[in-house]
Amino acid sequence: RTKVKEKVSLTGAMSFQKNLIKMLDGNQLIYLNPVTGKITNSGKTVSATEYYIALDGIEIIQNNNKLSINGKSIELPYGTYNNVKVDKLLREEYIHLIDSGENQVYLLDKKGAILNSFPVYGKENTAIARSKSNFLTTLDGDDIIIYKW
């Protein structure tokens, strides 16, 4: 256990980056040293209209159809987007999100490029998995739709 001297108001997911724990404290992005308990402010803020998620080696800030992936700005077609998800298959990170107004699922690589054959139809929730191929699943009411890519 590590004692942290400062009070932290965790408002998002935590991730490890370069032996530090990266997290949101309110709207401030901070780093916590798990050995010493020292907190360092990164100088980055995330507004109330933005969604923040991080996984080893990837950091995304989403404001509806505008994404910042590791500092690179990506703009998807205008729409009403659910919060972005990030999953790792083998050694590759994939970003997926749903435009709930158009019922379209977008799948992007970690550089922000939309993968071939996407977007596809989907209404609710997405998940990706790998077997012999890569698969994306999405819900449509009581039906599960499975796409192979």
Written description of the protein model:
This protein has 149 residues and is an all-beta fold. It has a domain at 79-148: Thrombin, subunit H (Beta Barrel), CATH 2.40.10. The chain has strands at 15-17, 20-25, 28-32, 39-45, 51-55, 58-63, 66-69, 72-75, 85-89, 92-99, 104-109, 120-121, 124-130, 134-140, 143-148. The strands form four sheets. A four-stranded antiparallel β-sheet has the order 1-2-3-4, with no helix packed on it. Strands 5-6-7-8 form a four-stranded antiparallel β-sheet, with no helix packed on it. Strand 5 and strand 6 form a beta hairpin. The protein is elongated. The protein starts with 14 loop residues before the first strand and ends with a strand.
Topology summary:
Blueprint: E1 15-17, E2 20-25, E3 28-32, E4 39-45, E5 51-55, E6 58-63, E7 66-69, E8 72-75, E9 85-89, E10 92-99, E11 104-109, E12 120-121, E13 124-130, E14 134-140, E15 143-148
Antiparallel strand pairs: 1-2, 2-3, 3-4, 5-6, 6-7, 7-8, 9-10, 10-11, 11-12, 13-14, 14-15
Summarize, please:
This protein is mainly β. The protein has strands at 15-17, 20-25, 28-32, 39-45, 51-55, 58-63, 66-69, 72-75, 85-89, 92-99, 104-109, 120-121, 124-130, 134-140, 143-148. The protein contains no helices and 15 strands.
State the CATH topology of the domain at 79-148: Thrombin, subunit H
Q: Give the proportion of residues in helices.
A: under 10%
The assigned CATH architecture of the domain at 79-148 is Beta Barrel
How many strands, which pairing sense, and closed or not: the largest β-sheet? 4 strands, antiparallel
Beta-strand content = over 45%
| Strand line-up of the largest beta sheet | 1-2-3-4
Overall mean pLDDT stands at 89
Shape descriptor: elongated
Number of strands: 15
Structural class, judged by helices and strands? mainly beta
